Amino acid sequence: MAAVMPDHLHDAHHGPTGLMRWITTTNHKDIGTMYLIFSFIMFLSGGVMALTIRAELFQPGLQVVQPEFFNQLTTMHGLVMVFGAIMPAFVGFANWQIPLMIGASDMAFARMNNWSFWLLPVAAVLLIGSFFVPGGATAAGWTLYAPLSVQMGMGMDMAIFAIHIMGVSSIMGAINIVVTILNMRAPGMTMMKMPLFCWTWLITAYLLIAVMPVLAGAVTMVLTDRHFGTSFFSAAGGGDPVMYQHIFWFFGHPEVYIMILPAFGIVSQIIPTFARKPLFGYASMVYATSSIAILSFSVWAHHMFTTGMPAVGQLFFMYATMLIAVPTGVKVFNWIATMWRGSLTFETPMLWAVGFIFVFTMGGFTGLICAIAPIDIQVQDTYYVVAHFHYVLVAGSLFALFAGAYYWLPKWTGHMPDERIGKLHFWCSIVFFNITFFPMHFLGLAGMPRRIPDYALQFADFNMMASIGAFGFGLSQLIFLVAVVKCVRGGEKAAARSWEGAEGLEWTVPSPAPHHTFEEAPVFK
Amino acid sequence: MTHTFDKYFVPEPSTYPIFGSLALLLFGGGAAMWLNGVAAGPWLFFLGIAVLVYMLFGWFGQVVRESEGGKYGKKVDRSFRWSMGWFIFSEVMFFAAFFGALFYARVLSVPWLATGDTAELLWQGFAGGWPTAGPDKPDPFTPMEAWGIPAINTLILLTSGATLTWAHHSLVKEKRGQLKLGLLITILLGLLFLSLQIYEYRHAYAELNLRLDTGIYGSTFYLLTGFHGLHVTVGAIMLTVMLFRALAGHFRPDSHFGFEAAAWYWHFVDVVWLMLFVVVYLL
Amino acid sequence: QSRYNLQSPVTGVAAQIYDMHTLMLLICLVIFIAVFGVMFWAVFKHRKSQGAVAANFHENTSVEIAWTVIPVFILLGMAWPATKTVLEMKDTRDPDITIKATGYQWKWGYDYLQGEGQGIRLVSNLSTPRTQMDGQAAKGEHYLIEVDKPVVVPVGKKIRVLTTASDVIHSWWVPAFGVKQDAIPGFIRDAWFRADKEGIYRGNCAELCGRDHGYMPIEVHVVSPQAYSQWVAEQQAAMAAAAGDSTREWALAELVERGEKVFAANCVACHQADGKGLPPAFPPLDGAAIVRGDPKAQIDVVLKGRPGTPMAAFGALLSDADIAAVITYTRNTWSNKTGEAIQPSQIAAAKGN
Ligand code: HEA
Ligand code: HEA
Ligand code: CUA
Ligand SMILES: [Cu+2]
């Protein structure tokens, strides 16, 4: 095929059409779109699993699923949401926006970019397919703690290979992003003039390259313990089950910042636009993001306070974890200072962004409470932790993704999203979100463990409330689907600068952004 | 705009990536089946590898053609440099996980198993110490001696690093003959290293009773040296490709990043070995 | 018992945790109100629709330093009490009684290692009947947090708990004591508590440990020293009687009858009451070759377990009589009709080599 292809690519018409266009494309916008669609499908799949969990937990007793399958659902819900929904969604944003924001013609490695994406459906097939093999999917929790994960059936092996493949995809994607940002900025765009979204992604990509290989190593050791007789996680052979946790969380904690830093970036783009005022404290934002990333490598064992570390270990990890509140606080304060004495309007993206700050901070505070080792002894592995991380992951990462989607939809589709639908989506989401997850704090404090299909009677009413909220929250997400489909189909034409206060190179190209942009680098002032 | 802009090369649509994905699907699915005794497993697994090899040859072949066709400007060259650097960093982190496991076992968990209540209540009579196959009545084994083949292998790899640098200098000075000779020697040294390593493994299994399932010592020993060996293999393949390219007249003194990338990789593999030699064999 | 907050503490450490949590909550609440007070002020007052015109400031070094430094001090204030509690929790020296808690899939075994009651051994199983879970019977007050044999400890004494596990990681957790300690296979970890109030305190296994992770509760009875001594005497008498069981010769019917109970307490979760199991993870016993063939192989599996699967090693968990009984039961029920009686002495012999 290479032979018949003309070298100059101005003409999209010469490329393959139909399905082949999407399979072979090297265009960052096409690839970004595929990432976004893929991640939304994964979000719905993970959501259906969550709803099944909530249906089982609606009342005490076993009604909907059996315990073994329940554990599979919990595990797969976590894996699918983390690796299938949230991470690819942010990569989708990176694909669409980074070249537009820094004035690059495409990603640095356009062909590898395609591969990064197309590895994901493959991993999803392995992961979700594992439900259908004998023994079912892995049921060891998304953390895949050994030696429980050593006990699992074939589904565990499929999950391990899926994780390897997703790791390859993430590493290639991250390298692509780093190189694009470092090497392809338009003349005049110095690092400290770069939009904050690009900064947060640069640092996220660095985290990805640093920790995905470590996860690969951890699951490889599980694989060899399972099948080749090694004893990494077996005391009888001189290993240690807790060693798995150290390696996993060395990946796992940076991983949660991988899922939040780009969200910080999105919010840092949106707030100034709708405050019509430049971002407050740009430089301190950059330093805060870097500090979070650096600190994130020295806090991992706050997930392991109950494993019985020596006191010095507990204290070290407690202090280091608490420190992260400082740079995160700087970010929150900067956003609010940006809004202060601005000229605020609350179109849908801004609503989501403000909602994000509000609810994410609650999740941050519960994180801080978890960081206090003695308190964590009580709440570890309870619904308090489940509440904490859904506040930061759903109200944090997911809300920021919605904010970003509404913000850039005009650039992607050429139409303004419907404000009425978008706002409805926001209000339903934030109300049902809190109905679902707020009671989980109480459940956890009162002593309900996580990852259980059935519970003691005193937890009944809050669980019922959470389940009702969850179904409401799930249904609310269908509104998003409507909003997007409507926006793609038509609606008010979007101007190049779609929002009054929007700044940055992406708003200098027409809406929808043409297939190829910035083939001649713009000069950034 | 008046200044002429060095246009960044964006490749045309390509089918290689989807073949790559398919390959990994077959590879991963096949491996999972194989490990669980499904008959089709090995077939799918090897099919996956075959597709992967096809894809890699096709893809890199195209990259080489594009490069020799002069499509890559300065900027693309810089991208390649950055990306190779970051790729090697990711590899470093992969090895770090296994080095970390070795460190954790030696310094923390094995001593824990041999002291205090853990030893008294669960593993009476376990003395700890390194090397160990753990407290649960392991078969006796002999640990790997550093000053035999491993030391020779260290010399071999160090020498190969030197010959590769020699080849590189020759490339820059346009001494093509020395370039080819240097590459060839490097590759042969790599193969020699691998042969000795295989010999060492056989010796370990046959005479030392040191196996993959020899507790934590066997686990860390084989996974660290095994993954290193795998990387030597990949590096040797990369250098072989470079040799063929050199024979085909590729590379110019000012533009030969393919060669450099392979060299960086080879040096990285070298450094990993040095650390292995110290941590796994010597200490 | 609050439904909104940590359970009422009955140990000094738990009380410290409780207060610390209250303090943290208040601090966070104050910060929250202050920060979002400012934000909502801006949201309402600095709206375009209110005629607000955007200012143009975008940095202010002194403000930025202030909101970096002040949080550091707040955090120091939080870290101080936490540090003290951590050090206290870790101080497991000089206990009055030491109990080893061993996690099994899915039950807890307890060995009293030191202090009054030394030598007592008991296995604690969930006692909620299956019918309550399936909704065929009304759920009792202590649904899922009740056990057949609780741990008993005297009030006011320092109890050191050693945790370990035989298969996967479990976690021994009693909220009212402020104790949660993972039980790690192959390692011993410890924690301690000194309960100030008599009563029954309930907890759960707090680490995902496989299918019945939700069904391995912990029940601790804190009793007066007199009641404790009495309980110890009872246990010791029962253990002496059980020792006799393991040496005498049993009749087949006797073994089957006892075996049925042992099966119901230990095996039914996986192998199911009808012996059909839940393949492939949990193989059937009904018609299984190993159950019908040479008893040596079956005894071996029951004693040592199957590493890498949930099949536990029961050798240390059940008495020889119980093991003999349950094996005899499986060999003489459902469609298995070997007619063999496996004697406790055979188990003892198998253990010997
Ligand atoms: C997006 C993901 C995300 C983010 C951003 C965070 C952020 C934080 N997390 Fe969270 N966490 C998770 C995802 C995340 N977490 C997940 C998934 C788990 C569970 C994994 C599992 O077990 O399955 C988890 C679990 C978890 C634990 C282990 C709990 C347990 O299992 O026992 C702990 C303990 O320390 C913790 C702490 C923190 C802290 C201190 C932060 C901090 O970064 C928060 C900082 C933010 C703020 C503090 C708010 C804003 C600050 C101010 C307004 C300034 C002023 C404030 C003060 C001075 C107090 N997290
Ligand atoms: C990364 C992001 C992420 C996201 C977005 C979510 C989203 C949700 N999660 Fe969470 N969750 C995790 C990450 C995430 N989760 C992780 C990491 C764990 C830990 C796993 C472990 O313990 O190993 C976990 C665990 C977890 C638990 C604990 C399970 C247990 O311990 O046993 C629960 C329980 O309520 C839960 C609920 C939910 C709900 C209700 C949503 C909702 O927000 C989902 C909403 C979405 C939908 C519902 C889909 C959209 C709608 C449709 C498809 C239409 C159909 C709808 C209707 C018919 C109503 N999650
Ligand atoms: Cu045992 Cu959970
Ligand atoms: Cu963390």
TrEMBL record, chain A:
EC category: translocase
Ordered alphabetically, the record's keywords are: Cell membrane, Copper, Electron transport, Heme, Iron, Membrane, Metal-binding, Oxidoreductase, Respiratory chain, Translocase, Transmembrane, Transmembrane helix, Transport
Q: Does the keyword RNA-binding apply?
A: no
Q: Which reaction does it catalyse?
A: 4 Fe(II)-[cytochrome c] + O2 + 8 H(+)(in) = 4 Fe(III)-[cytochrome c] + 2 H2O + 4 H(+)(out)
Q: Known PROSITE patterns for this protein?
A: COX1, COX1_CUB
TM ranges = 35-55, 75-96, 117-139, 159-184, 196-223, 243-267, 279-301, 316-337, 349-375, 387-409, 421-442, 462-485
Copy the pathway line from the protein's UniProt record.
Energy metabolism; oxidative phosphorylation
What is the topology of this protein in the membrane according to its UniProt annotation? Multi-pass membrane protein
Query: Know the name of this protein?
Result: Cytochrome c oxidase subunit 1
Gene designation per UniProt = ctaD
Automatic annotation (TrEMBL), chain B:
Family matches, as CDD domains:
Cyt_c_Oxidase_III
Q: Where in the cell is it found?
A: Cell membrane; Membrane
Known PROSITE patterns for this protein?
COX3
Q: Which UniProt keywords apply?
A: Membrane, Translocase, Transmembrane, Transmembrane helix
- On whether Cell cycle is a keyword of this UniProt record, the answer is no
Q: What is its EC number?
A: 7.1.1.9
Source taxon at top rank = Bacteria
How is this protein situated with respect to the membrane?
A: Multi-pass membrane protein
- From the record, give the transmembrane residue ranges: 16-37, 43-64, 85-105, 147-167, 179-199, 219-244, 264-282
What Gene3D superfamilies does the database record attribute to this sequence?
1.10.287.70, Cytochrome c oxidase, subunit III, four-helix bundle
Which residue ranges does the record assign to the Heme-copper oxidase subunit III family profile domain?
4-283
> So what family is this one in?
Belongs to the cytochrome c oxidase subunit 3 family.
Record's protein name = cytochrome-c oxidase
